[in-house]
């Protein structure tokens, strides 16, 4: 479950949900694979799988071929999550862009769309636009309205009230409850999370974090944030604002650049798409600004800038990794997808600065879903709402 409840969950239901996740993610698609992945007894697995099939959440889809030397027994049937008839929706609010997607009842993407817009300063207009985009996408496909929608918000949400709680990051959103606003506009159940948290969920289920229970996800885009999965569960902190690393002081001061939070020298003033593009444009005076991107740097100067930015981020992340001891650090957003100069530099800097035992068990990788991680995670969250 991604939306925790105060009610205790029976052990039988926890086992069933654990196996359902493994089947849906593709990590284990037969009873024998589930036994191996979980260490549970074959009878426990068989009982839970039978329950999942009986309730229509899992289907048996043909047979898995047996390998050479595996014996002459009956081939194992392949288990798949049932797509179901429900349609779910996802919204990813970036600071300057909105992306939407529709998926089936298991959270698998059917179609998506996006538009550039000012999200930070036009909260109501941005939500109107997102809902229109989502409904229009459903109309184009000739399918019904989504049964549930999950949305990623690029700023801190108070988990106790559902309200946006930082006027310095999302000035026009403060005091709004995005879930209620979207539910009212769409006439359906809606859930809102910090966008980086949904990115962590997407990567842990279907991206570079698959197979990991302790995931540290970084969304490096127009802003900088982190999403945490600890011991297999989304971690929000005491009030829902865990992961706001963008407003941590840059190691060494970072030049003391002013930040939108009102301070100087925040990590976001160095490690964000806008700050990086400004440096690249300054070093390429003969190139039109709209021809410059952070993706796959093609010249030595740009590669050096990306490496320096990556090193700054790696230095800062080392102390967080010492504290949290994740097994994988996933670099998402446009900077995470920019290429090896950035990713390799983050890895080398982090491993140099982190406690050796921390670094020894840590993978540092780009997001497997690229810039779509938040949208994929939102689809997964919406599918949970339907269930």
UniProtKB/TrEMBL annotation:
<dbReference type="InterPro" id="IPR036388">
    <property type="entry name" value="WH-like_DNA-bd_sf"/>
</dbReference>
<dbReference type="Pfam" id="PF00480">
    <property type="entry name" value="ROK"/>
</dbReference>
<dbReference type="InterPro" id="IPR043129">
    <property type="entry name" value="ATPase_NBD"/>
</dbReference>
<protein>
    <submittedName>
        <fullName>Uncharacterized protein</fullName>
    </submittedName>
</protein>
<dbReference type="InterPro" id="IPR036390">
    <property type="entry name" value="WH_DNA-bd_sf"/>
</dbReference>
<dbReference type="InterPro" id="IPR000600">
    <property type="entry name" value="ROK"/>
</dbReference>
<comment type="similarity">
    <text>Belongs to the ROK (NagC/XylR) family.</text>
</comment>
